[in-house]
Design brief:
alpha+beta; Methyltransferase, Cobalt-precorrin-4 Transmethylase, Domain 2; four-stranded mixed beta sheet; two-stranded antiparallel ribbon; 3 helices; globular
Length: 112
Amino acid sequence: MITVIGMIEVDLISEEKVKEMGSVEKLRFILDFVRAGKIVVLEGGLTAEEQMKLIEFTMSQIDENFTGIEISSYPSKRGFLRKKTRLTIIGPADMMKTIKKDKDWISAVIRI
């Protein structure tokens, strides 16, 4: 028997969707989902610069109702010049905890 206590919404967003957006629009789009308590999975991920900007933008919005984000990704397979990740998972810091990560696997626990 499985008992469901609560639900978590996970949004899987295609690379094509985020390619249409500018950097600031993309970061606001992601942060709006996460602030609503959703987990976001981005196909194609974010560049290292976009990840840094997302963390910086998030830090300015932390308050008693929003504790920040947890972000985990794995890099592209393109040699030494890794400009973009293959997949990025972003969620509210108080709900998501990355427990294992390597070059091809991300394991996270999501609490509700």
